[in-house]
Prior knowledge:
Layout: E1 2-8, E2 15-18, E3 24-27, H1 36-49, E4 56-60, E5 66-71, H2 76-88
Parallel strand pairs: 1-3
Antiparallel strand pairs: 1-5, 2-3, 4-5
Amino acid sequence: MVLTIKVIPRASKPGIAIEPDGSLKVRLQSPPVEGAANAELVEVLASALDVPRRAITIVGGAHARTKRVQIDGIDERRVAAGIARLRAV
């Protein structure tokens, strides 16, 4: 499964939201320096979706705020459940 994610680095408060166009917006505390924000994004997604970090690959936009992320071994239902769980926290 491939997701489109809008990343907001250096956010004061981390979080995740669903945009009107169906993409995800993820607020990260890490700065976009030396891959710190990308690493935090992988951590957040792995934790939220209960998948290992190695199952998550940034396939597009590694140096941009809009990223395409491939997640192996997961379906839409599990993604929706993980996002709902994270948003409830």
